[in-house]
């Protein structure tokens, strides 16, 4: 499965296009170029999908000469791709360009871009993790644009709630309120807070969640009236076990549902199919269809890292106290298409799982250079 990593292509059946997904293979745009949208996410707006991610189309090298030093690529910027069908992706270019601000200098770190549309200001708002090569700055950067395809104007960086912020995600609830979740306190605690009305800053209140669990790469989503936070452990670029958490509100109590991955071998499931989640997308207008998105990192050449897209299900459970009302399942497929969402798997459990202990750090450094 490690060799199997995400290609989409279209076949025609009786005049109807059917999207086939091949998790882990090379993913190319409409110009047959490798897609550069790592660590990113997808925004759906005005009947189109916009995929934002890190452009890593440059030489991969290690930041230090020490053993275990993290691989990196000098900052190029954030790329955007557009699609009407999640299959054919048009390259819209680098929409937040490196080198245009000291935070975005080549020797810096710009990761995990996420974008929301703000109905009040009529602006697209991008948040990124910005840092120095030693991962000591630990800030968020914010950029805005009136167009989904940019260019985005960089507005500066800060520490949300005055706290360290590394891997992050954004979430917009049905009422239009925006939230941020970010790894903090040396990646040992997840902080969750509400965004301001214009989505460019945070409200004063925040909650400390997943305390002491050392989780990163958060992806928050809502389905069937419930809130979920999908995360990874902190093991450098090496894949590890995913863990999903459930709550009744974004600022509420988060409880573990365990590892959502099923299918393949035990090693596949224990390593999130040799990938790290980056986003979860409930497909607009398609109830019950949820897309799991992940990166399959290649530390020898980060620009050739591949994508793993798989179907995700939120499944109801019997009303048994104190068990959870729902389960989350991500099932491996060597290849699949949208009709596979109808092949609903069985739920895995009826009890809340005990949260996983923090995984051992990968070498001297954490995931992308953060000291463990």
Describe this structure in words.
This is Glycosyl hydrolase family 43 protein. It comes from Elliptochloris bilobata. Residues 351-372 are annotated as: Disordered. One of its GO terms (molecular function) is hydrolase activity, hydrolyzing O-glycosyl compounds. Keywords: Glycosidase, Hydrolase. By secondary structure, the chain is an all-beta fold. The protein has one domain (7-342): Glycosyl hydrolase domain, family 43 (Tachylectin-2, Chain A, 5 Propeller), CATH 2.115.10.20. Helices cover 1% and strands 45% of the residues. The protein contains one helix and 26 strands. The chain has one helix at residues 266-270, and strands at 7-13, 16-22, 38-45, 48-54, 61-62, 71-72, 77-83, 90-97, 109-118, 123-131, 139-145, 153-158, 168-172, 178-184, 189-195, 202-209, 215-223, 226-233, 243-247, 255-258, 261-262, 276-282, 290-296, 306-316, 326-331, 336-337. Strands 21-25-24-23-22 form a five-stranded mixed sheet. It has a four-stranded antiparallel sheet with strand order 3-4-7-8, with no helix packed on it. The protein has a four-stranded antiparallel sheet with strand order 9-10-11-12, with no helix packed on it. Strand 3 (38-45) and strand 4 (48-54) form a beta hairpin. It starts with 6 loop residues before the first strand and ends in a 35-residue tail after the last strand.
């Amino acid at each position: 499965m490690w060799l199997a990593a995400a290609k989409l292509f279209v076949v025609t059946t009786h005049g109807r296009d059917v999207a086939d997904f091949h998790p882990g293979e090379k993913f190319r745009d409409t110009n047959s170029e490798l897609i550069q949208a790592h660590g990113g996410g997808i925004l759906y707006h005005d009947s189109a999908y916009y995929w934002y991610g890190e452009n890593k189309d440059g030489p991969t090298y290690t930041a230090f000469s020490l053993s275990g030093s993290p691989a990196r690529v000098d900052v190029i910027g954030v790329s955007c791709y557009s699609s009407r069908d999640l299959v054919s992706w048009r390259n819209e270019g680098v929409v937040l360009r490196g080198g245009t601000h000291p935070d975005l200098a080549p020797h810096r770190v710009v990761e995990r871009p996420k974008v929301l549309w703000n109905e009040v200001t009529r602006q697209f708002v991008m948040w990124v993790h910005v840092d120095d090569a030693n991962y000591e700055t630990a800030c968020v950067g914010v950029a805005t644009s009136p167009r989904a395809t940019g260019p985005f104007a960089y507005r500066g960086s800060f520490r949300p709630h005055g706290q360290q912020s590394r891997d992050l995600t954004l979430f917009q609830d049905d009422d239009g309120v925006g939230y941020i979740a970010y790894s903090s306190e040396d990646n040992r605690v997840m902080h969750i807070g509400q965004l301001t009305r214009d989505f460019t800053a945070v409200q004063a209140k925040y909650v400390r969640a997943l305390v002491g669990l050392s989780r990163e790469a958060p992806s928050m989503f809502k389905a069937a009236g419930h809130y979920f936070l999908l995360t990874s452990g902190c093991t450098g670029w090496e894949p590890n076990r995913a863990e999903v958490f459930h709550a009744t509100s974004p600022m509420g109590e988060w409880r573990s549902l365990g590892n959502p991955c099923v299918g393949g071998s035990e090693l596949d499931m224990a390593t999130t199919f040799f990938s790290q989640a980056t986003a979860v997308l409930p497909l607009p207008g398609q109830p019950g269809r949820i897309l799991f998105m992940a990166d399959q990192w290649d530390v020898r050449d980060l620009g050739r890292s591949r994508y793993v897209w798989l179907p995700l299900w939120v499944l109801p459970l019997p009303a048994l106290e104190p068990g959870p009302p729902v389960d989350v399942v991500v099932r491996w497929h060597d290849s699949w298409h949208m009709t596979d969402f109808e092949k609903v798997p069985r739920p895995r459990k009826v009890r809340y799982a005990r949260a996983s202990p923090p995984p051992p750090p990968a070498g001297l450094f954490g995931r992308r250079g953060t000291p463990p």
